[in-house]
Amino acid sequence: MKKSINPNGVRKPFGNYSHGLYVPPGAGLLVTSGQLGIGADEVIPRSVKGQAELCFEAIGKILAEADMGFEDVIRINGYVTMREDFPAYMDVRDRFISDPLPVSTLLIVSGFTRAEFLVEVEVTAAKVP
Q1: Helix (H) or strand (E) holding 5
Q2: What is the CATH number of domain 32-127?
Q3: Mutual orientation of helices 48-65 and 86-96 as an angle, nearest 10°?
Q4: CA count, 13 A, side-chain hemisphere, 52
Q5: β pairing state of 119-127 and 35-36
Q6: CA atoms within 13 A on the CB side of 72
Q7: Entry's SUPFAM superfamilies (predicted)?
Q8: How many CA atoms lie within 13 A of 96 on its CB side?
Q9: Are 118 and 34 in contact (CB under 8 A)?
Q10: CA 102 distance to own-chain centroid
Q11: d(Cα 43, Cα 5) in Å, to the nearest integer?
Q12: CA gap 96, 113 in Å, rounded
């Protein structure tokens, strides 16, 4: 069973995430590449919310292919190009996470491979037998 680690003496997390997450031995591990906000139809939404939804939908399909779900996600790394996009990204992210809360990092970056990309998300998942 995965276990959240949020020790006394460390400031409470700023959002819906754990400071640490213990994964017991024998768990299956899945690591994704960063997913960008582009659909299979090559359409790129203009909003960070629309792009983040596509990122997490793609991650959901990758997880399913590995017989996993968002409940197995232990780490989320998110990247946005503008600090102002933080709330929209977090609103989408929070719809996909579940207990125990994964660890999470969000970085503001100068850009991605194409100027129209506003967000990229990668996850690590562990399925406990």
Answers
A1: strand 3-5
A2: 3.30.1330.40
A3: 30
A4: 22
A5: antiparallel
A6: 22
A7: YjgF-like
A8: 26
A9: no
A10: 9
A11: 39
A12: 25
User: Distance between CA 117 and CA 54 in Å, rounded?
Assistant: 12
What residues contact residue 24 under an 8 Å CB cut-off, 6+ apart?
A: 1, 2, 128
Dihedrals φ, ψ of 43, to 5°? Answer: -80, 135
Extract the tokens encoding 36.
């960008």
Write the pLDDT tens digit of every residue in 31-59.
Answer: 999 999 999 999 999 999 999 999 999 99
Q: What does the chain come to in residues?
A: 129
Q: Which pLDDT tens digit goes with each residue over 18-28?
A: 999 999 999 99
Q: Which tens digit of pLDDT belongs to each residue from 72-106?
A: 999 999 999 999 999 999 999 999 998 999 999 99
Q: What is the DSSP string of 76-104?
A: EEEEES-GGGHHHHHHHHHHH--SSPPEE
71 C-beta neighbours (distance < 10 Å), count: 14
Query: Which percentage of the chain shows pLDDT scores above 70?
Result: 100
* Residue indicated by tokens 């780490």: 75
